[in-house]
Amino acid sequence: MAAQMTRTNVAARTVAGKPAAVARTRLVARAAATQTIKRAEVPLALEEGPMPLNTYNNKNPFKAKIVSVERIVGPKATGETCNIVIETEGKIPFWEGQSYGVIPPGTKVNSRGKEVPHGVRLYSIASSRYGDSFDGKTTTLCVRRATYWDPEMGKDDPAKKGICSNFLCDAEPGTEVVMTGPTGKILLMPEATNSVLICVATGTGIAPFRSFWRRCFFEDVPNWKFNGLLWVFMGVANSDAKLYDDEMAQIAATFPDQFRLDYALSREQQNKRGGKMYIQDKVEEYADEVFGLLNDGAHMYFCGLKG
């Protein structure tokens, strides 16, 4: 999730105590004619040692470089969201569910009238510890460009745009990125590989859950084989705003008994009361099943905009 200063984020986990049995459930959404997944080999040294935490801070930041910036939403999406791959050379390792801080270039004037560097913006990491290239040398962020539409001007007001999100979304390959972290313990995956993971996301809140499914389904980790269930609830405005839908379709085609996906499309679907379909409405549709899984030891995570 892009945990920016311009928005407030919710990230929480509910754990019901005991190891969960694998649940065999139906698949809600599946793309037709989708390429299946072949698990990639990864450098197993990243399985060793304690969880990395606050390796770098704003007084001692890490300097990385942009590898690529790709828009990942369609033309009718409400806003622009980018998948941003960053080269770290494996020097700022992390675990799935953690966040990085990014310090945008430039300065601001603080409340005392003093010119100071911009503060740290937190972004949930959207790749597994091995990165999208499976070598442990990169990381990925999922960033929505923050803009403000001024009705009087009839256009976006550049003076009110998100400083860090626009810096990242406009970055060219080779651009230096000043980073802190990793940080965070709330959204870590459970140790038990037979766990049921229920992941509820809105917008770029899908980021940490992408790190989950990359580890669970895309990587060959001999001492960590996921044989549980990953159930994703994804809330966005419309079909063009879906994020990483191609990857989830691949998972569905390859692991149909271990993956489940439900979308809440607020501008295309209606809830049972005839209103817009928001993420809480979609989860409510499966309330009995969700609570049953929680009673059996499932883990439930939430990440996205508050409000």
Rough outline = globular
- Secondary-structure element string: EEEEEEEEEEEEHEEHEEHEHHE
Going across the major beta sheet, what is the strand order? 1-9-6-13-4-5-10
Helix content: 10-25%
Strand content: 25-35%
Number of E-type strands? 18
End-to-end CA span: 15 Å
**Unreliable runs, pLDDT <50, ≥5 residues?**
1-33
Q: What can be said about the biggest beta sheet?
A: 7 strands, antiparallel
Could you report the average pLDDT, rounded to the nearest whole number?
A: 89
Radius of gyration: 19 Å
Tally of contiguous helical segments: 5
Q: Which class best fits the helix and strand makeup?
A: alpha+beta
Structural description of this entry:
15% of the residues lie in helices and 30% in strands. It starts with a strand and ends with a strand. The N terminus is likely disordered. 40% of the residues are buried. By secondary structure, the protein is α+β, with helices and mostly antiparallel strands. The protein has a seven-stranded antiparallel sheet, with helices on one face. A hairpin with a 5-residue loop joins strand 7 and strand 8.
